Amino acid sequence: MTQIASTPTTPSAVGAGQPGGAVSTATSGAAERRAQSRRHYFTGTPGRMRLMAAIASALCLAFALAGFTGLRGVQTSVDRASANTEQVVRSRAIYADLLAADAAVTNGFLVGGLESPASRKTYDEAMARVAENIATAASAQEADGKALAALNEEVQNYAANIDRARTYNREGKPVGAQYLRIAGTDLRAQALPIADAVATANEGRAEDAYGIGAPGWLALGTGLVALGGLLAIAVWLARRTHRYVNLPLTAAILLVGAALGLAAWHVTQVANTLNDARNGEYKAATALAQARAAAYDAKANESLTLIARGSGQAFEKAYQDSSAKTLDKLQELVNADPAQDSLRSRFGAYTVKHSAIRKADDGGDWTGAVKLATSDAADSANDTFRQFDQAASTVLAQEVKSITTAFDRIGGWLLSWVAGGAAALAALLAGRSMSRRIEEYR
């Protein structure tokens, strides 16, 4: 029986003549063309133009982001400097008012149980300002919260000791003077160091805030890089195409240049304002605030020397130290603001009155010295000191107002939007700047 051999069929033989094979070949060809198109997208002159357009757009976008955040950061620096300056003045006022209260109450004790309504009023007003400023300072600066809480507790202890001293003083008991000395000693040993630490910490924050900071300078640096990059790309394009004006790219250059100029003007203005304030009104205000506090301390020690009746040498030395510090700080004020030289002569007039008080006491006329120290008549020691204090308070308010007014004039929140928006528009124009030139190569 004869067998007929069958010829095997192969998959390739079958597929070659069927529609499925044609589809596979077409698909692989399309994929190859797409891959080749991607490989050549950034090659040749059209490819390099696409690359340059992408770089130009990226530079503009980087400047838009850096310019917006940088100018916002500059304005934040101004706000922070203003807030910290107010906190410095507020904390120094707490320190000064505590000593003002102590000076008033010690002077009132010199007349025995007949504390004058004027000295009581001065004490009450000073302590009210202390309480108000502690509360305001605590809400204004969270970092000062714990220290101010401790200070408030010490202030309450001081006030309690003063109340005890007044009670015994009205009864004519010598223990009243002892409570007064305890109150004054604890004030200087406990409360005032805390107040000084708070003020010093805020002075450090204020000094740090009196500068533009990295964001402002980064914005300018990014703008310079963006402008330089756009100009370099424009030169490259002109040499490549021999056409020297590309409208979208030129518009992008102008927008970036305008935004950079606006940012540079604003940053320079803010830097100059902050520098002038730091070396002028701010330095004057801090020096004067410390001078007022030292003057109150001197006034309190003047009374404590008399209360000690012959054994107050330590208080007189404290007076001399505080008086010298007052004059030193007033000289710092004059160095920062030469127009305020009159305060030194006003305090000098008070020191002359103090010398007369000491002359009477050292000469054995304690009663006469007390009369000189407690009199509120015109040209008395109290009146002369009051004139100095009122003048110093007025000048301090003027210095602080000058700072806040200068900061308010800066403005600048809108500039960040203008500069950032201009740079963002430049990015759109730069991204489309090569389209027509690329079309010419097709």
From TrEMBL:
Residues 1-12 have a biased composition (Polar residues). Residues 1-38 are annotated as: Disordered. Residues 21-30 have a biased composition (Low complexity). The chain crosses the membrane at residues 51-71, 217-237, 244-265, 410-430. Keywords: Membrane, Transmembrane, Transmembrane helix. This is Secreted protein.
